[in-house]
Amino acid sequence: MNAPEEKAGYGSFLTGALNLALPISAIREVQPLRDLITLPCKAKGLLGGLNLRGVVVPVIDLCQMLDLSVGTSAADSIVVVAAHGQLIGLSANRVNELFYVHITEINPIHFESGGAHFFTGSVTCPNSGILLNVLEPQGLMNLPGLPSAKDPEPQRLQGLGAAHSLNASQTLQGQSYMLLQSGQISYAINPTQVESTLANPEITSSSLCAGHFMGELQYRGQFIPAVNLNLACGFRSDGDTRSLREACVVRLKEGAVAFMVDRVVDMVNLDPANFAPLSNDNSAALALVDQVMPNSLLGDAYVKKHHCTGVTHFVLNGQLIQSNTALNELASLLAKRKVDNQSHSDHLSKSRGEYVQESRFLTFWVQDELATPIESILKVIPYNTALDILPGEGVLLGYVYDQGENMPVYSLSHLLTGRRQGLGSHSSILIVQCQQGKVGFAVRALKTIESARWKNSIPVLGAKRSEPGNFGQTSHPHVEIGTREDKRMLRVLDLHAIGVGLPGRQTPAASASLDVLDLLPELLDQHL
């Protein structure tokens, strides 16, 4: 009978020029490095104290402590280390990933002098191929002159019986899982799928925001999509995303994605043989999960202590995440964009666009604010509720008689969303000249006339291409509109191109019609 395979789990991170690894069991959590407390003690490399839920944890810069200046850069994270009832924080420029290796792959190192040492060996990360220096947690706690804090939750170390230090490897029983909480839904994910976790990342809105896509956040010099995990999985959401304060970053083939959750709860070791498959109905409806983990596996005391909701954890499937088309398209789109010294709003609009000669656009409301080139509009007339309305809920509203001409008027809302929108005294009809004659488009309200000097093309992702209003297009043109205080990216509609595909009436050219620039100011005054 073969002996059970012995593996050790590690988390890797970068501090200055040092590529480091710690046993997973010793990594309590990762926090952003900000607003450290000044401590009444002096020690080399001591940056200050982290307020960790009422406990002051000393934070150390190993590069400063070791007088290593080559390759250093500003740290932005703190790795909280726990060992033998003590806590200490290590500053990090980047937190990389969790991984497992066979204990024979760990290369120990020995010192001639006695005493405690915090550097105990090296190991090669199987995913990145980077050679890492392995730290001994207890050696860190024993560094002379450096303070440490008492661990208020020493029992949390017991949840990772699968994680090992270099001096105390154990046989893996089951598998490690990271537990996540998002609203009323609990998740479990294999930590080897997780590249990093981020606390309170700043999310910036994007013109692509819709559905599960919440916006963009900066991560390792790039913008990555922030995704509402509940919506991405197929669960309903109450629409309030203020509680989604932690990000679980997963690396896909096309780039990284940040799944936004309320909190990263804990790391536990469980036997996946005790998980249950989803029912056929649920597996068809839920996109990224394929199993459920009964909370009974955690024990009543654990569930109560960590406020686990429901009766199960949904197990996220790494292969389903990796193969998800919409997530990969989002990741690919943002992976090409680098963070630089421009403001994020400038970066958002200009990273893939180009300058154009300043041109004027009419903006108006349908479901959202949209724009169309002013020169494409033949004229604008007020919407008349006495319009010869056709029965039904089709795209053709009816016909309007204007200056001796009878022309069809279409619901722009219906063309874009598949249903008519309420129109009233503030609404207008935009008239364009097509080959088959004049065509009118009814819009909810006009907004403004503004200039634009920047244009961009925003991809239409996955199945959204077949939705009403996307017309099977793979991308939509956008322009940057407004002043610095009111700058925004708006989708540009080519009403002439849309009108060409609609049934119209052959009418003579309207050479005597009012110029749109003469008429619009009066309409805007009436309607805004």
Task: Write structural notes for this entry.
The protein is elongated. Helix content is 14%, strand content 41%. Strand 13 (175-182) and strand 14 (185-189) form a beta hairpin. It is mostly beta strands and 528 residues long. The strands form six sheets. It has a six-stranded mixed sheet with strand order 8-1-2-11-10-9. The chain has eleven helices and 34 strands. The longest helix is centred in the last third of the chain and has 12 residues, at 516-527. It starts with 6 loop residues before the first strand and ends with a helix. Residues 7-146, 174-327 form the CheW-like domain. It comes from Limnobacter litoralis.
Write the layout of secondary structure elements.
Blueprint: E1 7-15, E2 18-23, E3 27-32, E4 46-52, E5 55-60, H1 62-65, E6 77-83, E7 86-92, E8 94-102, E9 107-108, E10 119-124, E11 131-135, H2 137-141, E12 149-150, E13 175-182, E14 185-189, E15 194-199, E16 213-219, E17 222-228, H3 229-233, E18 246-252, E19 255-261, E20 263-270, E21 276-277, H4 280-285, E22 289-294, H5 300-305, E23 312-316, H6 318-322, H7 325-335, H8 344-350, E24 354-365, E25 369-373, E26 379-382, E27 388-389, E28 396-402, E29 405-411, H9 412-417, E30 428-434, E31 437-443, E32 445-459, E33 475-481, E34 488-492, H10 495-500, H11 516-527
Parallel strand pairs: 2-11, 5-7, 14-23, 17-19, 25-34, 29-31
Antiparallel strand pairs: 1-2, 1-8, 3-6, 4-5, 6-7, 7-12, 9-10, 10-11, 13-14, 13-20, 15-18, 16-17, 18-19, 21-22, 22-23, 24-25, 24-32, 26-30, 27-28, 28-29, 30-31, 32-33, 33-34
